Amino acid sequence: MQTTLTDHTVVHDVFHRPAEVDEEAAGMLAALRRHRYDSLLEQGGHDHLDQVPWSSRAFPVLAALAPVMTSPEGEITYPGDPMCLYAALSVVVDNALKSARPAAYRDGEPPFTDLCPDWRHAPDKERRLTARHGPRSGANAESTPDSAVFDPRIWDDESREQLRAMTRRLRPKVFLVSTVSPGHRYALEMARLVKKEEPDCLVVFGGRHMDETMRYTPGARTVTLEYSSTLRAIAEGRAEPVVDFCVGGEGYFALDVLMKAIALSMDLDRTRARVGDVIETLALLGASGLRLPGSSLLCARDEGVLHAFPIRGEKYDLAQLPSPYQGFAVRARFPIFPLPDGSPARTAHMTVTNACPYHCDFCSESALVVGGLKRFTDSPAEAALERVCEYVSYGAEAVFFDDSIFWAGTFKAIHEFCEALRAARTAPSPDHLPERCRRWITGDDDWQRLRNLQFGCQVTADLLTTLRAESEVRALLTALREAGCTYLYMGIESMSTEVMHHIHKNIRRTADLPWKKKVRTALARIRDAGMPVGTSVLFGLEGENRATIEETVEEVGRLVDEGLVMLASPNILTYHPATRITRDHGMQDALDYHSPDIENRPPYIYFEEAFPGVVSRRLTEDDIWFIHDSTAKRWGTIRNSAEPVFP
Q: Going by C-beta distance under 8 Å and a sequence separation of 6 or more, which residues neighbour residue 471?
């Protein structure tokens, strides 16, 4: 069952109600800012904020993505960049960089009016072109967001020691963690380690697990927490109280205002900020008339009381968000995008939509779970092309679009983008690029990377078969290839008609085109267009049994034999808190994503996100062993042979 908190919850409706200005609160906020500003100048005998040394303004921040695995046997061989973390930080990083610029105060009030996160510079070109996966410099001597990220891909003793060492060097005042549900237990342990080293460090959790496990109901003015939520686990004593703030929903702007409140609440000697003071400052900011775009929920835990700040603001264009890579280097290298010398291309991640339009009951990327579909809407093709050019200037040699379905499956949008990218890649010179792209393509190396750029994206079988006429589908695939698309990824999920009967992405069901034939038709059309395909299969869906497992393993094996797929990734259904299948299987109040002592062991470690107790009830442990062994035998080296992990 869900828990609706009322007795020990304070709802601060200051960001949710219509824009009103509490004059008393506005006066108090102005006085606070003036006092802090004057005190900061007085400490060093300065006349303007831009004269204050950065070392007197900056406070260190450590950001991390919680891993989902404990063993390298899980085959995360080619990790992608932690884009959920980079995207969540995009607004606050942008505002910190603006606030650190020379003469920022003389150009008007900067976003951070006195103290500021120690993100003074974006990475320079040399760093961008040489960055690789692995431990990053913990002292943050460069004062870049990129050098203050902890990004382990497995959680083991080596990762623990790396986090301790990074915390001791950096001594963060704020620890920001992005986590999905399967990584939540490790996020909690990471928070414990950081708190042990730095007891006054504020810990902020965000990510998909927060999105799925806490919800605000405006009419009742109540906060509902799922059993597996961070705050409920802490309140019920199932997890240690090591998390101070949680941000859920469209949290870009909520995290930004939280960091501003922390900066305004922190002692000017930058030793600490107290949770209670941050809560008061948040209330002042909202009461003074500050309004934020989007829909999100910001919660704080202070002395046993939950403080909730619901945020409901204007809708926004996804393209208006600052670039996630502005403060970070592109590190991913994917062999699916080979360079002429055979080495894997430096691959940037990009999205032009934030959710999937389908409503599959197992998926946490559905617009129903995420809270709506956001996309590039204002001149979308031009905006997306500019973003691509920006990433090329950062060193990207390839781009993978992480959208659940490329451009949400909108043929018109795909055609317009492909034509814009094709025209840019084949232009006679950079001078012929659109004006908004020319500012990024400034050197010969940028121009060559753009001309040779490869990209990949995700599609569905329905998109390429039943939703449009064959001629339209083939024209779309041709447009993709001519724009530089060299790889498509398609979720097969299952080859069993019995199983796929329950899946929403199998949206057009006809007697003459059953699911198996639909998959084969889609793959054949992609092959005819000259692009290789990677696939994913999900075992444990409704209707699954040993017979359907065997059927899927064999049918995918035949696709491999016929050269219709170059990669096949087997996965085990893991329950996510907000999905319908979790409710239908009665698992909502049984998801243990918090206990630190659950041993992850074979066969679970061979599948990303699989843990005992949270995988499909339709599978026994013997079934999971069978899936591991039979796919390895039947699919051979095609199984995960070069499968990138897209966070």
A: none
